[in-house]
Design goal:
Elements (H helix, E strand, L loop, with lengths): L1 E15 L1 H9 L3 E4 L7 E2 L4 H4 L5 H7 E26 L2 E19 L19 E19 L2 E13 L6 E14 L2 E12 L3 H5 L3 E8 L1 H6 L14 E8 L8 E15 L2 E18 L2 H13 L13 H8 L1 E3 L9 E6 L1 E21 L5 E17 L7 E2 L11 E11 L2 E10 L14 E11 L4 E8 L28 E8 L2
Parallel strand pairs: 11-15
Antiparallel strand pairs: 1-4, 2-3, 4-5, 5-6, 6-7, 7-8, 8-9, 9-12, 10-11, 12-13, 13-16, 14-15, 16-17, 17-18, 17-19, 19-20, 20-21, 21-22, 22-23
């Protein structure tokens, strides 16, 4: 099989010129310094211009068009062979093999006037980057019938990457067993290793800038306040500049996982599926957030975390964190955060352990149509994390800095009658820590509705309502910035869609 895809985008948008805007509203700089701090330049605000609309001609003189261009492409060639190798006492030994070759590249050209350090365009920064990567892979899989009730699966794969990173090649494999002691019960288990190369923009991104609202936790706690007390104080909540850049030194992510579970057909039309899983990953690629950096900067500078636990400020982790924050020296902004440097790294270790379960039931009737019921449950039993090598692999499932959901429940009820079908979905998300990390907020429930009707064989219409009850995120009295809740929750309330499908 051969495939090729290309994508190109051109983004043009009008933006104000920083110096022209300053000159238009403030005029020339006046002699001397400000009378309050003796540090800032002094201007005479042109109030007529500031409080009145600008004309089209003035807008043209004050603005420009920022142009960003991007293109990407991917080409792949693959061969697949399947079949039975030979007969075994319990059945044929099935075989599959694949050979893959691929190349991909991208080029992101930001307007040079918005790159870090230029300050030509008012209140806008951007990112660029580009690179290419070739990859080759060979894989094979066997399905081995060991007995009428017992089957094994073996698979292996070799990947080779050719780019500027330290990613070279990797061998991964998988082994699984399935046992059916009787017709209504299947018991299964598997072990596998994994390999994943970093996403290309993690590697090839040029230095780029961003503006973000930050919380200066060190200044807050150093002044003797708690995080909650500083939540709405402008002295500790302000906007700072940030710089991000790709990391060609990234290595591949490696891992292993195993699962064990069963599928039980309890009675006709009623089944239960339960699976236990454990996944361990080393070298996971990801950006460090500004919030994470600034919280740990405070811990490292103060020698203790929010709960009073000792922190070694001389550790490799603390040195990395402290080097990521640049603070102003001298002047009225002495000590304020000037810049946060961040980018992708290979995290040392992440693991997840949990249970997934699903109960399904269907009821078919002659007069009232067909009904379907499904209830799913996912529960995280443990999570462990270490940012850098040598750090302890601590369990953080219940840590108040962990904003991952520990549990989810999903349910649905469906009804089909002739050309009409109706489905109600419901999801319950477990509790999360509050933003101050002093407790937990309530769970979150959301319900969706789908109604469809087939008018003819070729025409179908559907009504889709998401978030039927128009529920917003659980209240968090410690989250003081817009949108006042964690990003795992949607800011969108009830949505209604009407969809029509034609087939000919």
């Amino acid at each position: 099989m051969v495939s090729h895809s290309e994508y190109e985008t051109n983004n043009d948008r009008p933006r104000f010129l920083a110096q022209a805007l300053t000159d238009f509203f403030l005029g020339p700089q006046l002699p001397g310094a400000d009378p309050f701090f003796g540090a800032y330049p002094v201007y005479q605000l042109n109030q007529d211009r500031y409080f009145n609309p600008i004309t089209p001609a003035e807008f043209q003189a004050l603005s420009t068009v920022v142009k960003t261009r991007a293109d990407s492409s991917a080409s792949n060639l693959s061969f697949v062979v399947t079949g039975d190798l030979f007969e075994m006492p319990a059945g044929p030994l099935a075989f599959a093999a694949t050979l893959e070759m691929g190349t991909q590249e991208y080029n992101l050209q930001a307007d040079p006037r918005i790159l870090p350090g230029q300050n030509v365009i008012y209140n806008l920064t951007g990112t660029g980057g580009g690179g290419e990567r070739d990859r080759y892979a060979f894989g094979t899989e066997f399905s081995i019938p060991l007995h009428d009730t017992f089957k094994a699966t073996l698979a292996a794969r070799y990947d080779l990457y050719d780019d500027i990173t330290n990613v070279d090649d990797a061998f991964t494999w998988n082994a699984g067993l399935e046992w059916r002691p009787f017709d209504s019960l299947l018991i299964r288990g598997a072990y596998s290793t994994s390999f994943r190369a970093p996403d290309m923009h993690f590697v090839f991104a040029d230095e780029s800038g961003f503006f973000s609202g930050i919380f200066d936790e060190f200044a807050c706690r150093n002044a003797g306040f708690t995080v909650t007390q500083c939540g709405n104080q402008t002295a500790y909540n302000y906007t700072a500049f940030g710089v991000r850049q790709g990391n060609p030194g990234l290595e591949e992510e490696e891992g292993n996982s195993y699962t064990f579970g069963f599928v039980w057909d309890i009675v006709d039309n009623l089944s239960l599926t339960v699976d236990y899983y454990q996944v361990e990953l080393e070298g996971v690629v990801g950006d460090i957030s500004s919030a994470y950096i600034l919280q740990n900067e405070a811990d490292c500078r103060l020698g203790q975390d929010r709960q009073g636990n000792a922190v070694d400020g001389s550790s490799a982790f603390c040195q990395f964190i402290l080097d990521s924050v640049i603070r102003t020296v001298g002047g009225p902004n002495d000590g304020r955060i000037e810049q946060v440097n961040r980018g992708p790294i290979n995290r040392s270790y992440i693991s997840n352990e949990g249970i997934d379960a699903t109960l399904r039931y269907s009821l078919d009737t002659d007069r009232m149509g067909n009904f379907g019921f499904q209830l799913g449950w996912s529960h995280v039993l443990d999570q462990k994390f270490a940012e850098f090598a040598g750090e302890p692999r601590d369990s953080y499932r219940d840590d108040l800095t962990n904003f991952d959901f520990r549990s989810r429940m999903r349910g649905s009820v469906s009804w089909e009658y002739k050309d009409l079908d109706v489905t109600v979905f419901g999801t319950r998300y477990g509790s999360l820590p509050n933003w101050a990390e002093t407790g937990r907020i309530a769970p979150y429930h959301v319900y969706n509705l789908n109604v469809g009707y087939s008018f003819t064989e070729n025409f179908r219409a559907s009504l889709i309502v998401n978030n039927v009850l128009d529920k917003i995120a659980p209240k968090d009295d410690t989250f003081f910035s817009y949108p006042f809740f964690w990003r795992a929750f949607s800011p969108i309330g009830r949505e209604v869609f009407v969809q029509a499908e034609f087939n000919w």
